[in-house]
Amino acid sequence: MSDPAAIPATAAIPATAAIPATASPTVEFISLSHLNPSTELNPVSTRGIDLAYFRTYVRSLEEAGFDYTLLPYGSNSADSFVVASAVGQLTERLRPIVALRPNTAFPLVAAQQLATLDQLTEGRAVVHLISGGSDVEQARQGDYLPKDRRYARTAEFIDLLRRAWTETAPFSHDGEFYRFDEFGPGFAPYGATIPISIGGQSDAAFEVGGAKADIFSFWGEPLADLRGEIDRVNALADAAGRAERPRIWVTFRPIIARTDELAWRKAYEYVTRIERTYQAGGARRFVGPGGPQNVGSQRALDFAARGEVYDRALWTRTAAATGGLGASTALVGSPETVAAAILDYVDQGASLVSIRGYDTLADAVDYGRYILPLVRQEIAHREATGRRGTLQEQHPGALAPGFDAAVAAGAH
Ligand SMILES: Cc1cc2nc3c(=O)[nH]c(=O)nc-3n(C[C@H](O)[C@H](O)[C@H](O)COP(=O)(O)O)c2cc1C
């Protein structure tokens, strides 16, 4: 054995090997759950649950090694709480994330539902609070508050969730949005508490999420832009005097194939099919006449207008094709390139990475085989050696000199 004192000091590590100070030392994976085989590539006319498919889907996520699954919510979707409860019973380890709009439940009832889910899953429940990105969509369920007020309501809602889970004696409340007398102690969660995530990118979303959320979530953005957004969250968390900053969740729709070239071909073919689906009205939009009101979608459309490819693998054509609706930006490339691109975001501080493909079930299986192990291997390597591995250096993707997505795809 060589003398450990002879190991070069950190300063001697080549720049490519040094782990950035902003990097998260851990990463966990999320994927959204689908209830039936309908996709933006192959729309099937159903709004219902295909139980056999749903069972297969959530079990596949668990087998693929995903840590969490998001159960989304819309006025015409299945109920996210009921679906989350089913996910809990169909899996052993996967953590259901319930998308919840505060306008749909009195906070103490939501706290009770979440605590019940947490007990039924032995501590796996997570809640993702959605304040509502569209006035038109909110009005469908009788919510007429403007967005800033919706976020103020979310702030009060969060405080009440936490109190309902932890207060050991009855308490009363007379706030701006909620009032009640002598509640509690409430039904307790299985664990000490339940993680609360926030989605949204308006100023009000940052104010509430930075000060109060355990997790702050984003859709995929260029690295420099996301860096700025993470700095905003951190600054607000620090200003609120919090001991811990919110974890950062970032969401992509990867398009992978054996090589970068094959993946870019696939991406171009996919976007044509997705455009056809949206033109045919096969995916319902929550968008009013002036375009999307939620800042996340506005940003996605703006990135798409400014450029097609960013950084190592981020592709915006899919966001343009869907009108920036929901998570739509892609990561395109071989599994190695996409894993390296995910690590670029981990280097910026993301510790929760959501990946869901356009070919939903098949992609979940492929990600489990080809992407999750590569990212986890790099994280383990970093932990063991204190240095970066070679994956990011060896798979530049679109960072390679002279790269052109259309050329890579054989489009001209
Ligand atoms: C990861 C993630 C998941 C989301 N899931 C949902 C959802 O299930 N239902 C929904 O209506 N909005 C969902 N949203 C959208 C935003 O939460 C919503 O538009 C926000 O409340 C208001 O947007 P703004 O603050 O950016 O303007 C999600 C956002 C993110 C980042």
TrEMBL record:
Any one GO MF annotation of this record: alkanesulfonate monooxygenase activity
Domain Luciferase-like: from-to ranges: 45-351
Fetch the Pfam families from UniProt. Answer: Bac_luciferase
The broad enzyme category this protein falls into is oxidoreductase
List UniProt keywords, sorted A-Z: Flavoprotein, FMN, Monooxygenase, Oxidoreductase
As recorded in UniProt, its EC number(s) are 1.14.14.5
Q: What is this protein called?
A: Flavin-dependent oxidoreductase, methylene-tetrahydromethanopterin reductase
Origin species: Frankia canadensis
